[in-house]
Amino acid sequence: MQDKCSKETNVLMEKQLIFNTEGISMDNFADMDGLRLSLQSTYDKNSLLELLDKVLDMGEIREIPIDILQLLREKIFLIFINKLEFDTKLFRLHKVFNNDLIPYHKGMAHIKDRLLFDYYERVDVVNKEAILMLALLIDILNNDKDRGIKDFIMQCADIFSRSKTFGEIINNLHITAEDIVDIYIESGILSPDIFMKKAINIQKNNLLFLRLIWLLSDAPVCYTRLYDLLKTLLYESIKAKNIELVLYIGFFTRYYYGNLQVDMDAWKRLDEEIEKPMSDFFVRYCRENNILPCSRMPEKGKKIKVGYIYQRLAMSSPVTVLLSLLYGHYLNQNPDFEFYVYSCDYKEKIGDDQGVIDKFIRPMGFKCISAGNLGEFNDYQHSHFEKAMALRRQIIKDEIDIFVTTGTQIGNFLVSSRVAPIQIYWSHGDPYWSVNNLDYRIVHSAEKSVTKGLYGGMEYFKFPNLMSMELLNPNISPEKIEKIRLKFPEDKILLGVFGRLVKLYHPDYLFAVSEILKKNQETVFLICGSGDNEPIKKYFEIAGCIDRVYFEGHVNPNIYGHIIDIALDPFPIPMGVAFLELQAKGKPIVSYKVNLYEINEFRLKDVLASTTGEYIQIAGKLIKDEMFRKEIGEKYRKFVEEKLDCQRAAKELERLYKGLI
Fold this sequence. Notes:
Blueprint: H1 2-14, H2 32-40, H3 45-61, H4 66-79, H5 106-119, H6 125-141, H7 145-159, H8 164-172, H9 177-187, H10 192-195, H11 200-217, H12 227-239, H13 243-260, H14 264-288, E1 304-310, H15 317-332, E2 337-343, H16 354-361, E3 367-370, H17 384-397, E4 402-405, H18 409-416, E5 422-427, E6 440-445, E7 451-455, E8 458-464, H19 469-472, H20 478-485, E9 493-498, H21 507-519, E10 523-528, H22 534-543, E11 549-553, H23 557-563, E12 566-568, H24 577-584, E13 589-592, H25 597-600, E14 608-609, H26 612-624, H27 626-643, H28 646-660
Parallel strand pairs: 1-2, 1-4, 2-3, 4-5, 5-6, 6-8, 9-10, 9-12, 10-11, 12-13, 13-14
Antiparallel strand pairs: 7-8
Helix pairs in contact: 2-3, 2-4, 5-6, 6-7, 7-11, 11-13, 12-13, 12-14, 13-14, 14-18, 15-28, 17-18, 20-23, 21-22, 21-26, 24-27
């Protein structure tokens, strides 16, 4: 056995394990006796896999006899496991290998122990992952699925398992994001006593693995349960003066919690519990490590250099707003200014889209610097601190006079360490970002010129809202629009909403939509956006109207915006740029009055409700009255054309910048 295991493991170290995941046809079997006879005469992979669905189908109807399960397991052992091979379909057998009467298979257990204890540390990451998968399969066939899954997830978290095969296995086992969060909490993966003793790359892998599950599960709500654990780790990292971990953990804490909690209280909590402690630490760290603040003052008579920095340059609502502002600066051609664009190029958020840089930013003549080009920052294990320092050196070298950030943890470090004479926070929703060495705050609003006032209780300069009509309503071929419209019933009025699904979770909003659907049978509801749709599905299932709800996921709003007949603005947190995109296309939108003037000012009073009942009533009127629908849509189109002028907004902002100098 030892020679055989050693020989096979040498093969394992030289090449990846064989994964056969193709669908296979199968014959029908009359009964258990037929299945038993077929298993007895099976000696190859394909024949065994052909029997798999039959076993599972029978398991749905009745309990599989122990002797058949033992025979099946023995065949899997001889044909797959003994050769250190497996097929992802085999993991589906967890449904039938759940009988305590199944004897323990010592041969498989021996192979598992040899792989994990004698070979695991000696192979590369690809083969580590394969060993873990084989060990999990052995646990399942030995009726030890729960412990096997826990061990599997814990070890996959350490190596950042991310292959396609991994995704197939967790799907076959129905492992949910909630299950993985449970394992993280129960096993102490993020416990300070365990986490802080790990090597930095394993610490990063633990967080990157969560990011993978986040993507596979489409931003699961259960991640809010990790907030306190991540916050504690952040404080431990600050205590340890580990700036790399502070930046890394701070990023993921903000990313998970900030994307799942979109109200003012959540933003304030993030500011007080995450951003401020980080900023205080950055100031101390810079002082202790001789990272000197920018002491240069802007020179009178010279061009004012303005630098904007974003998390990444890829199409999103905030970047669309930035592109509109840059277009306004471009149209103004103000000789007193020179504009720079910087990107943190967060690979954890996919990174920059070179197409956005090459198609929009560089043709306007602006200098664009991506952190990914300032050093070795393209792999998952790159240093956030080294990237932050590379950006800091570049910004100081460029002699930026006015540095404008939309936040982020690297942005926090840059502002706290002071990279420019004047430093500004540009809010895209969150008003609370109170880091050290921040001089001013700005927000695009409904004002006609720059004014000073409160936003979320904080002092801000408010400048005119800005969006390029070319970006809000680009030319789309009628054929593309018609193709998408054909997906939905021709005789139905299409209600819809765009944005992150977390904005739709409020029960009052879901109640309003369900009532609108019940009262208006000629409608269906299109939900367009990324996120965990389970809470919404459950609500509409209970309400009895799930059959008229379409979950479209992330879509092109410039196509779907044309097929939507009426938009139902979520509340209490409404749509952002998507609202303007719908306005530009002349679509009527039902909205709910919120406690922010900046938002209400862009809503027509005819379709702005003060109560849930009024919201339902307005939607009903738009559905029943086609003339009213067209009238509101046209009003909105004219409204947005008059209100939004990116050139005027840029001119007002340039006037503000000049005054600050």
